[in-house]
Amino acid sequence: RKEVEQDPGPFNVPEGATVAFNCTYSNSASQSFFWYRQDCRKEPKLLMSVYSSGNEDGRFTAQLNRASQYISLLIRDSKLSDSATYLCVVNINTGGFKTIFGAGTRLFVKA
Amino acid sequence: GAVVSQHPSRVICKSGTSVKIECRSLDFQATTMFWYRQFPKQSLMLMATSNEGSKATYEQGVEKDKFLINHASLTLSTLTVTSAHPEDSSFYICSARRETYEQYFGPGTRLTVT
What we know:
heterodimer, A: mainly beta, five-stranded antiparallel sheet, 59% strand, globular, B: mainly beta
């Protein structure tokens, strides 16, 4: 089982749709959580950190459920520019921090 | 967000030569930097963790004598691909980690070995 698993995708949605990305992690020593986006042939860019209380940034909402070891990202009113690969990232404390990237979920938003 | 630069952005070299890639954190000090490579349509693959002032920690299967990493200061890490071969052609990306554990990525270096 992979340490961080994401929906395989791709997701194809029309503009204005709401999209939900799911991510699960297996290591209970996981301590911090992030969502990144990566555009084709570009580097990943930090989208938002994820907290147990949930956090929102404009159209983006991230949630963390430590009991279920589950992280989500919700994009409301999706735009063409949201098309990218979304990466779930988990930091695990194994005596030193180790960062694990999910394989990513590709999103295509179409007009 | 923080700024991480990477140089060069693109390099083409002949088989057998060595290539050096620089990664700089421009607005914060990073005790830890990471080096990744990514093949087309594949996930990022961590190659090594670079700690300032100490030896890098390499992931399983990554040859430390082929991919030399130096983290000489809190703002600079370098990756040297020695005796490059066509199979080393890839997208190499560095990142720098803040105290709050977010990683910020450089724009990447596209290496083509002919």
